[in-house]
Amino acid sequence: MRAVIIASAPETDIDYVRELIDENTLVICADGGQRHARALGIVPDLVIGDFDSGSAPESGDVLRLKPEKDDSDLQCCMRTAIERGCDEVILTCASGGRMDHFLSNLFSLEELAERGVSGALYDSRNRVRFHTGTHTYQTDPQYRYIGIIPLDTRLYGVTLCGLKYPLEDAEVSRSRMITISNEPTAPEFTVSVKQGCALLVESSDEMRSHSIQI
Q1: Within 10 A of 13 (CB to CB), how many other CB atoms are there?
Q2: pLDDT per position as a tens digit, 30-53
Q3: Are 30 and 78 in contact (CB under 8 A)?
């Protein structure tokens, strides 16, 4: 089962969220994400938060959290989705706004991977996934650019195939990042990292609707 989590970042171009939801999707709002859901005409299955960024709903399934806690509301949403049997978790309305929250949301993709759950963070122009090891991805024509962003200080043994700028057994560091603004040249492309983990970022020049491909 797939979960779509609607966070509370101050995104304004949020129509893409509708394209990620069908009748089998578990929709969870993280606290102030309720306002995005209302704007989209979406009724969430569950609302989770300490409600410091919005009032708690008066009805429906609500999980109230204490304001003094170690984890963010979004992390609690992720873990609840997994507890309810979801093996895919999509984060939306989670980019922009406070940089600490945005970075935390991005890094949460690593936790999903550690728990054996497929995950992605979407906004109106980007899809971000966690990458380690070797994986072949289907090229999505909605996205023009591919970026590999190291999460470790260095990535070793980086090989890129099916992209405009290939690499073979290269070293990539955060201070010398040579793996951004790449472009697919084939129906699929392969990213291989012998040591280290990264974020795979697909980006478009303009706002797009999104289909699910994880």
Answers
A1: 10
A2: 988 999 999 999 999 999 987 765
A3: no
CA 112 to chain centre: 10
Strands in 37-166 per DSSP E: 46-49, 62-64, 88-92, 118-122, 126-138, 145-150, 154-161
pTM, 2 dp: 0.90
- The answer to whether the CB of 91 falls within 8 A of the CB of 72 is no
Predicted pLDDT at 214? 46
**Best CA proximity match to 175, nearest among 150, 202, 196, 200:** 150
Residues 63/84, Cβ–Cβ less than 8 Å: no
**Token output for 133:** 């090891």
Indicate the length of the chain as a whole number. Answer: 214
Angle formed by the axes of helices 73-83 and 99-114, nearest 10°: 20
Q: Which amino acid is at 27?
A: V
Average pLDDT over residues 146-171: 97
CA pair distance 67, 90, nearest whole angstrom: 24
State whether residue 49 is helix, strand or coil: strand
Sign of the dihedral defined by the CA atoms of residues 43, 210, 120, 101, in that order? negative
